[in-house]
Design brief:
The structure holds 2 protein chains of 2 kinds. Helices cover 30% and strands 21% of the residues of chain A. In chain B, β2 and β3 form a beta hairpin. The longest helix of chain B has 13 residues. Classes of the chains: A alpha/beta, B alpha+beta.
C-alpha cells in the first residue's frame, strides 16, 4: 500500500460516510440531547388528582375541578357548567408578575406593621375620618369592614355599580325595595344598551349558545363582542342611548296598560317620552324610525328585559339612561327581574351603611383604606382624589403592585385566590342568594395580610378573618366541609312577585332625561371598553397578543375617515391626548365604527384619563389623537 | 399512500366543530395552552409568530361574527407535513389516526410549516418561560419543548396516554374514549370529539351541513366543521382558500 492508496481510502470513506445513517443519526441524537438544558422548566411530579372547588374571582362563583399535581393546582376545569377563559388560569394569579408580595411604602420595602402604625397614628390624631373603599362589595370581608367601621366611626365606600346597575335602578322604584337580580332565562328578548351581556356580564354557562333561549338586541356604538354575536346589532350613535330609550317609551305609551299609568311620577316620565318621537330620535341615534317602532312592538309582544349596565372598565352609562331602562322595565311588566333573598349575617355584626363614593363629602377623608382583593372593576382616581383631605394617608390592601402604586402611601399585600378561603358576592344574574367558598389550596407567602384583619386590628379586634368566616358559615347554617369541597349554599327562593310604586326615582326629572337625550356629541367620542379579568394570568395574552380574538390593552380603532381627519396613520405610534393626561395607543382602522368615534381598549389605564360627568358616566371630554 | 394501505387503525379520532355555536370566547385557546404547557406570550410575539396550537379566526358572515377555530386538521391521507419532514419528527399514528409531532427529533427546518395547507403549525421562536414559580403549575403529562422546534395540536396526546394507562390498569385494551382540553372547555359545546369507527359519531360527519376545509386537496383532514348557514360555510371555505401559505 502506498501513501496515495491511503489518501484514496480516507477520502472515499469520508465521502461514503455521508451516505450512511451515521450523520443523520448524529443530527437526530444531537437534537434529542439538546432538549434538556438547565434553563428549561421542569414539569412538576406527584400524583395528579382533582379537587372540587369554586372560583370566587367574580360573583358567578363557577364550580371547578382543581387539578392538582403533588397538591399544587395545575389547572381549573369546569365541573358542572362552564368557565370563562380567566377561570381556567385563575390559579396563576398567585405567581403573576405584578403580584404584590411585600409591603411597600412609596415604592420602598416596608413592613405591614409600619402601615398599621401609620394608620393608627392617623386615626388617633385625625381631624377628618377613616373610610374603607371596597372594590368588591358583598363579601364576608365587606360585612366585617362595615362592622369595624362602626366601631371606628368611619365610612364604608363602594364604587359605582356597573354590573347590576339596571337592577339597582329598578330596585328604587318598587313598593317594597328588595335586592333584584336580572334573570335572563325568564325573558324572550333582551334589549341591551352597551352591556357586555355575552362577554363576561353573566356566568358563561348561563348565556352560552345551547343554553341561551332569549334573543339579544344590542344597541351599541361599536361592534363589540356581544354586538358581533347578538341576534341583532343596532349601531347607535354614541351618547344617544337615552334618546332611543325615550323613543321606545314613546311608542309603548300608545299601548299602555292601566296599572303603569297609575304609578307615581308617571306624568314626569310621560312628558319626557312624548317629547321624543321616533322620527326625532332617528336624527340623534341614526336608527330608522320604523325600526324603533318595530322594536317597541317586539319588546311589548313577549317577555322582555332592558339592560343598561355599562362596561366594567368603561364604567357606568349614567343615571338618566339607567333610570330610563328601569322605567322601560316597569312599563314592560318587570319581566326578568326577581327579588333575591339576603344571606344571613351573624347577629352581632351590625355595621355602617354603604355610601357610594360619589356621595362622600369632598376633602373629608384623612385615612383611606382601599380593599382590592381580586382583579376587578376599574375606578377612576379622579373619583377618589377629591374626597381626600390634603394630607390624607392612603393604604391600599391589594393583590397587585401597579394599580395604586402612584397614589397610595402604603401597598399591603393580601392573599389571593386559593391562598385563603374566600367567598364571592352574590351574582347579579341569578335570583338565588348563594354562598360559596374558594378553598385554600396554596400556602400564602410570608407577609401577606387579609384586608379584613388589617381593618380589624385598627378597630382593636383580634379575631382573625378565618374565624370570622367560620362564624358567618355557622350563621348561614351551611356545612363548612361541603363548602370547602366546592359545594354551594343556596337560600330558599323568595317570592318573585314585584310591584312598582313609581316609574322614576326621586330627583329624576323629564328635563334631566331630555337634557341627557339631547347632549351635544363630542368631536371625538371615546368609547372605552375592557375585560376586567385580563390581569388574571399572563397566559391570557394568547387571546390578544398571539391572536386577534380580543382587543389588546392600549389599542384603539376608528373609522378610516376619522383617522384621515385626525391625520394619523394605522401602524404608527399615536397618543390619545386628553385634559387629564396622555395615553399611548396602537391605532387600527375599523369600518364598522361610525365617524367621530374612537373605540378604546385601555385596561386600567383608562381610569387615569377619564372623568365622571354629571350623570355618573365616565367620559373622556376634549380628547384628540396625535402622532407620537 | 392511502388509508387502505395502512394497517387498520384501532381508533380514528376526529373532531366536529359547530360554527353556529362557537362564539369566540377563547376558552379553547386558553385550555389548550394550559393543558399542553404552551408558555405565555413572549413580549415580542405577534399573531404571526405566536405559539398557539389552536387559533380562532374571526370572520363576518350572515350579518354576525363567525369564529373559526383551527387546530391541526390531523390529515389522514397524503399527510403533507409527514411526507416532507427530513427527521421523521412527524408521525401518523395508525393506532389513533393522530398526526404526532416529536419535538425531540425536530430540527426546526420548518418544511412541514411550508407544506401544511392549513397553516396549523407554529414555530417556537423563544425559549419557553413562565413567571417565577409558575412552573409548578405545568401539566406533568406533557413535556416542555425547546425553542427552535415546530409545534402543533396533537388532539391532547397526553390525555390519550392517560386514558390508555387508566384503561390498561383496569384490564382494558383497544381504543379508549377521552376528551381533548378544547372540547372539555367549550362552554357552547361546539367541539365534539370522537372516534370515526363509532358509527354514531361518524354519522355526524356525513350530514349535509358538515364539511372539511380544503377538502379538494385530498389530505383527508379529520377535523370537520358544521353549519346550517350557507353564508357561513361560503365565508369559511373562502377564507381557507384565501389564507396565504407560510
Amino acid at each position: 500500500m502506498i501513501r496515495r492508496d491511503l489518501l484514496k481510502f480516507g477520502g472515499g470513506a469520508a465521502a461514503g460516510l455521508a451516505f450512511t445513517p451515521i450523520p443523520w443519526r448524529l443530527l437526530g441524537d444531537t437534537a434529542m440531547w439538546s432538549q434538556n438544558w438547565s434553563w428549561m422548566p421542569r414539569v412538576p411530579r406527584g400524583e395528579v388528582a382533582d379537587k372540587d372547588a369554586r372560583c370566587t374571582l367574580c360573583p358567578a362563583a363557577c364550580a371547578v375541578k382543581a387539578r392538582c399535581a403533588g397538591g399544587v393546582p395545575i389547572g381549573l376545569w369546569p365541573r358542572e357548567s362552564a368557565l370563562c377563559p380567566a377561570g381556567f388560569v385563575a390559579h396563576h394569579i398567585a405567581w403573576h408578575p405584578i403580584r404584590l408580595r411585600t409591603c411597600l411604602h412609596r415604592g420602598q420595602p416596608a413592613k405591614n406593621e409600619d402601615a398599621l402604625r401609620a394608620a393608627s397614628a392617623r386615626l388617633s390624631g385625625a381631624s377628618g375620618s377613616v373610610a374603607v373603599l371596597d372594590l368588591v362589595p358583598g363579601r364576608t370581608a365587606s360585612l366585617l369592614h362595615r362592622h369595624h367601621l362602626a366601631k371606628l366611626g368611619g365610612t364604608y365606600l363602594v364604587p359605582p355599580v356597573v354590573e347590576g346597575a339596571t337592577a339597582a335602578a329598578t330596585q328604587s322604584l318598587l313598593a317594597q325595595p328588595v335586592a333584584l337580580a336580572a334573570v335572563l332565562s325568564d325573558v324572550k328578548t333582551v334589549l341591551s344598551f352597551s352591556t357586555p351581556l355575552l362577554d363576561g356580564w353573566a356566568a358563561p354557562g348561563r348565556v352560552a349558545r345551547p343554553n341561551r333561549q332569549f334573543r339579544v338586541i344590542q344597541a351599541e356604538a361599536r361592534r363589540s363582542r356581544t354586538a358581533g354575536i347578538a341576534d341583532e346589532w343596532l349601531a347607535i350613535r354614541p351618547g344617544s342611548e337615552t334618546t332611543l330609550a325615550l323613543a321606545i317609551a314613546h311608542c309603548l305609551l300608545k299601548q299602555l296598560s292601566a296599572p303603569a299609568a297609575s304609578l307615581d311620577r308617571f306624568a314626569e316620565w310621560t312628558r319626557a317620552a312624548e317629547a321624543m318621537s321616533p322620527a326625532l330620535a332617528a336624527q340623534s341615534t341614526g336608527i330608522d324610525p320604523t325600526r324603533i317602532e318595530k322594536l317597541a312592538a317586539e319588546l311589548r309582544r313577549e317577555p322582555s328585559l332592558v339592560l343598561a349596565d355599562g362596561d366594567p372598565v368603561g364604567g357606568p352609562l349614567g343615571n338618566e339612561l339607567q333610570s330610563a331602562a328601569a322605567a322601560l322595565n316597569v312599563m314592560l311588566g318587570l319581566h326578568g327581574l326577581k327579588a333575591r333573598p339576603a344571606i344571613p349575617v351573624p347577629k352581632d355584626w351590625a355595621g355602617v351603611d354603604e355610601t357610594p363614593i360619589s356621595n362622600a363629602a369632598d376633602g373629608s377623608i384623612s385615612l383611606l383604606i382601599i380593599d382590592e382583593p381580586t382583579p376587578g372593576q376599574a375606578l377612576p382616581w379622579s373619583l377618589i382624589a377629591p374626597k381626600l383631605a390634603h394630607d390624607a394617608l392612603v393604604v391600599a390592601l391589594t393583590w397587585n403592585q401597579p394599580h395604586f402604586a402612584a397614589q397610595a402611601d402604603y401597598l399591603v399585600p393580601v392573599p389571593v385566590f386559593l391562598e385563603a378561603q374566600q367567598d364571592a358576592p352574590a351574582p347579579h344574574d341569578t335570583p338565588q342568594a348563594a354562598f360559596s367558598l374558594s378553598p385554600a389550596l396554596l400556602p400564602a407567602p410570608d407577609g401577606v395580610m387579609h384586608a379584613s384583619d388589617f381593618v380589624a386590628r385598627l378597630a382593636g379586634d383580634e379575631v382573625a378573618f378565618a374565624d370570622r368566616l367560620a362564624e358567618r358559615i355557622k350563621a348561614i347554617g351551611a356545612d363548612p366541609k361541603e363548602l370547602e369541597a366546592g359545594g354551594q349554599w343556596i337560600a330558599p327562593a323568595a317570592a318573585s312577585t314585584l310591584a312598582a310604586r313609581r316609574i322614576l326615582p326621586p330627583g329624576m326629572t323629564a328635563d334631566r332625561l331630555l337634557a341627557a337625550a339631547q347632549r351635544p356629541a363630542e368631536p371625538l367620542h371615546v368609547v372605552a371598553h375592557g375585560w376586567r379579568a385580563s390581569a388574571t394570568s399572563p397566559l391570557l395574552g394568547k387571546l390578544w397578543q398571539e391572536s386577534a380574538l380580543r382587543d389588546a390593552p392600549r389599542s384603539a380603532s376608528a373609522h378610516p375617515a376619522t383617522m384621515r381627519n385626525l391625520k394619523v396613520v394605522v401602524g404608527r405610534p399615536a397618543v390619545l391626548d386628553t385634559p387629564s393626561g396622555r395615553l399611548p395607543v396602537n391605532l387600527s382602522a375599523d369600518e364598522n365604527l361610525q365617524e367621530g368615534v374612537l373605540a378604546l381598549s385601555s385596561g386600567p389605564a383608562f381610569t387615569q384619563i377619564c372623568q365622571s360627568d354629571s350623570s355618573g358616566a365616565w367620559r373622556v371630554p376634549g380628547a384628540k389623537v396625535v402622532p407620537a | 399512500m392511502t388509508r387502505t394501505d395502512k394497517a387498520s387503525p384501532a381508533a380514528h379520532y376526529a373532531m366536529i366543530i359547530d360554527l353556529d355555536r362557537c362564539e369566540g370566547c377563547g376558552d379553547c385557546v386558553v385550555a389548550c395552552a394550559l393543558e399542553n404547557n404552551v408558555p405565555p406570550p413572549n413580549p415580542k410575539a405577534t399573531p404571526r409568530t405566536g405559539l398557539n396550537w389552536l387559533r380562532v379566526f374571526r370572520l363576518e358572515a350572515a350579518g354576525r361574527d363567525v369564529f373559526l377555530p383551527m387546530p391541526c386538521m390531523q390529515c389522514g391521507e397524503e399527510t403533507p407535513c409527514q411526507s416532507v419532514c427530513p427527521q421523521k419528527a412527524v408521525e401518523l399514528d395508525p393506532a389513533t389516526g393522530i398526526v404526532g409531532q416529536i419535538p425531540e427529533r425536530c430540527l426546526g427546518c420548518r418544511y412541514c410549516m411550508a407544506a401544511c395547507p392549513y397553516q396549523a403549525r407554529v414555530f417556537n421562536w423563544w425559549d419557553p418561560q413562565w413567571p417565577a414559580g409558575m412552573e409548578q403549575t405545568l401539566n406533568p403529562n406533557v413535556s416542555v419543548r425547546q425553542r427552535g422546534t415546530v409545534e402543533k395540536c396533537n388532539f391532547c396526546h397526553g390525555r390519550w396516554h392517560a386514558a390508555i394507562e387508566k384503561a390498561a390498569a383496569a384490564g382494558g385494551r383497544g381504543p379508549v374514549a377521552y376528551t381533548p382540553a378544547c372540547s372539555e372547555a367549550c362552554p357552547a359545546q361546539a367541539i365534539t370529539f370522537g372516534d370515526l369507527n363509532n358509527s354514531e359519531f361518524a354519522a355526524l360527519t356525513n350530514k349535509p351541513e358538515s364539511f372539511r376545509l380544503l377538502d379538494s386537496l385530498g389530505t383527508g383532514p379529520k377535523v370537520f366543521y358544521k353549519t346550517a348557514s350557507t353564508a357561513v360555510r361560503a365565508a369559511v371555505t373562502g377564507a381557507a382558500k384565501d389564507t396565504p401559505h407560510a
